Amino acid sequence: MDPLKDLRNYIEWLENRNSLIRVKEELSPILEIPAYLRRIMYSKGPSVVFEKVKGFENWKIAGNLFPNLDTISSSLSVNNLEEIGIRMIEPITSPIPYKMFDKIKTLGDLTKMSSYLPKKVNKAPFTENVIENKDNPLDKIPFFKTWPKDGGRYVTFGMVITQENEKTINMGVYRIMILNGNKGVVHWQIHKRGAHVHLNAMENKKDEIPIAVSIGSDPGTMLASVSPVPYPIDKALFAGIIRNKGIELYELNNGILVPANSEIVLEGKVLVNQLLDEGPFGDHWGYYDKPTEKYPLFVVDRVYVRDDPIYYGTVVGIPPLEDAVMGKAIEKIFKPIMQMIIPEIVDINYPVEGVFQGLLIVSIKKRFPGQAKKVMNALWGIGQSSLTKIIIVVDHDIDPNDIGKVIWALSSNVNPEKDVLIIKGSHSDALDPSNLFPSFGSKMGIDATRKLPEEREGKSWPEIVSEDEEVNKKIEEIFKNYLNKI
Questions:
Q1: pTM of the model
Q2: Considering Cα of 383, then 386, then 389, then 394, what sign does the dihedral take?
Q3: Residue 115 pLDDT more than 60?
Q4: According to the model, what pLDDT value does residue 37 have?
Q5: Residue 235 · residue 225 · CB < 8 Å
Q6: Mean of the per-residue pLDDT values of the chain
Q7: For residue 286, what pLDDT is reported?
Q8: Per residue in 387-407, is it b (16+ CB within 10 Å) or e — as a string?
Q9: CATH architecture of 7-312
Q10: Taking CA atoms, which of 36, 131, 456, 466 is between 20 and 30 Å from 30?
């Protein structure tokens, strides 16, 4: 099917498959709606639309739009999310087309790739209503205060869009603390692509960066915005790959291209040299951030809002919440790419309780001594996995998603003296509460694979117990007979 065209189409689709409820009671975006969302997320409930928003007449709020992996894959018309990662790498992993038939097929694949490209359009529904800076537009949008001790209201799923160069745009989800009716603080951490744009502006002695914040779009575009796509891959192109069709972009007055299907757009600029305290904020680690971090000031020039607007907000806290589902979706999408870069990887698991940056379990097809440590270091050297604090490597026959088997491998295969790698003084997730300094901590790798003789002073590894095949066949037949009687 064609991609879902916007947030409203997505909500309609969710409702048609009985995956959405509508709350009629009036609730406030200050603490009340976030508390309701946490309750429904912890209970693995459906998506929600709040029909009455206290203090914001004519507004609706949508939440928990990514409730489970089945909903995400169905909304993107794929059987499994790994298909999306395969789309990305197919052109460079397909066999070389020596024969004429293969060359024609390759030409067709390249044509298909071109269909992922974004397209510029001259109209966008969000231009129906424009609120200028002088009218304090940020006061007119039902941004959440998520936790009691948060520093204020926040944009929690704003797709912050910057022009990285003449050809590439970035679209990343960075929280924004609302200061007043036309100012906020953008929390783009030092490792994020938005922060790189900021650094480049400082080096080139620029005073401001034009930016836009899109809120509410189709599920593929929203998922693309939160994906850790490395520079210089264009995020708008990546959205097209996820959706299986290029997105439409509309150019704002400040020159920034935004998804034309946005529900709300904030247009403005970041003042490069004005850094303000941001926080505290109850984040996805389940703790309040330290309130002394400084981030750049965002000045809103104008806000665009569709008629009968719907605000999409998400909440974070002690996992698993909605961000855990999005994280698992990203894990599935990027697994084929990781396997291409590190071919010995069989499977991966970022456990949701590990907060993704906290813990990664990876299984490998082991062929040579030291391979587990090679994989750890490779992962710490690429993209978002470079922020992972703890990596556990297990053998190919251990399912990383079977925590019981992982614990067995840890308990039986690890000699702590030899198989634990500690890296001191390493870059780290900016929000990790264990850091002594922002974005600076340490890492641990655990080799829970069975060891080759070279890895244990020439001693061979004990043989794993296994059933006698003939005996097992006989017992299996008898066992089935009794099982059928239960």
A1: 0.92
A2: positive
A3: yes
A4: 98
A5: yes
A6: 93
A7: 95
A8: bbbebbbbbeebbbeeeeebe
A9: Roll (2.30)
A10: 131
Q: How far apart are CA 297 and CA 276, in angstroms?
A: 7
Q: What pLDDT, on a 0 to 100 scale, did the predictor assign at position 486?
A: 62
C-alpha–C-alpha distance, residues 443 and 421, integer Å: 8
Cβ-contact 225, 159 below 8 angstroms: yes
Sketch the domain layout of the chain as residue ranges.
7-312, 342-455
Q: N- to C-terminal Cα distance for the chain?
A: 44
pLDDT value at 103 more than 70: no
pLDDT, average across residues 250-258: 97
Instruction: Take residue 286 and report the two structure tokens written for it.
Output: 């389940």
DSSP state of 87: H
What is the rounded CA–CA span in Å between residue 42 and residue 38? 6
| Catalytic center residues | 283
Q: CA distances (Å), 366 to each of 127, 235, 335, 347, 393, in order? A: 56, 35, 18, 13, 10
Q: What's the CATH number of domain 342-455, 3.40.1670.10, 1.10.260.40, 3.20.20.30, 3.80.10.10?
A: 3.40.1670.10
